[in-house]
């Protein structure tokens, strides 16, 4: 059975891997293990990993976070995982003010920065659509979005 795997790396990291010893998870091997256990006749043809690049000035460890992410993404690509990047968007917003011992009050709001990951869900949906449409997924086909890892971003 032909199998294609799509991983929302941003949600995987923040939902399960952050703070764990598994940050260097081999997602291709994980997919093989899961498919082997649940569908032994499956043949993985493509593994896609979707994420957004870390922004150094907003990351807890700055440039080191960017370098760590880039190293991980290069390792995935070396294991034939397609890495497809979205982006982050930083905007000002408002949230209920925190006052210890008090319930939040909707009208008492404080200005905050809102960092949102953008384009990942759309890229996942379009990649799935294109893979189904073309029925011959390859990492070099017209639907592939190659990943380019530049020097750490200080922006």
Tell me what you see in this structure.
This protein has a domain at 2-87 and 117-134. It contains four helices and five strands; from the N terminus they run βααβαβββα. The protein has helices at residues 9-17, 27-38, 63-78, 120-134; strands at residues 2-8, 43-51, 82-85, 87-96, 109-118. The strands form two sheets. A three-stranded parallel sheet has the order 1-2-3, sandwiched between helices. The chain has a two-stranded antiparallel ribbon with strand order 4-5. The longest helix has 16 residues, at 63-78.
For the biggest sheet, the summary is:
3 strands, parallel
Span between N and C termini? 44 Å
Overall 3D geometry? elongated
- Residue stretches low in confidence (pLDDT < 50, at least 5 long) are 137-155
**Percent in helix:** 25-40%
**Relative strand content:** 25-35%
Radius of gyration: 19 Å
- Mean pLDDT value: 86
Write a concise keyword list for the protein shown above:
two-stranded antiparallel sheet; alpha/beta; 3-stranded parallel beta sheet; 155 residues; 5 strands
Secondary structure blueprint with pairings:
Layout (H helix, E strand, L loop, with lengths): L1 E7 H9 L9 H12 L4 E9 L11 H16 L3 E4 L1 E10 L12 E10 L1 H15 L21
Parallel strand pairs: 1-2, 2-3
Antiparallel strand pairs: 4-5
């Amino acid at each position: 059975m032909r199998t294609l795997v799509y991983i929302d790396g941003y949600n995987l990291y923040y939902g399960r891997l952050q703070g764990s010893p598994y940050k260097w998870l081999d997602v291709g091997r994980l997919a093989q293990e899961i498919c082997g256990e649940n569908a032994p006749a499956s043949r993985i043809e493509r593994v896609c990993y979707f994420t957004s690049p870390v922004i150094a000035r907003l990351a807890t460890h700055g440039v080191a976070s960017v370098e760590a992410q880039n190293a991980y993404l290069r390792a995935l690509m070396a294991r034939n995982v397609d890495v497809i990047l979205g982006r982050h968007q930083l905007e000002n917003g408002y949230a209920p003010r925190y006052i210890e011992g008090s319930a939040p009050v909707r009208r008492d709001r404080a200005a905050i920065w809102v960092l949102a990951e953008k384009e990942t869900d759309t890229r996942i949906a379009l990649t799935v659509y294109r893979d189904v449409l073309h029925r011959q997924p390859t990492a070099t086909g017209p639907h592939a979005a190659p990943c380019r890892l530049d020097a750490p971003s200080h922006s």
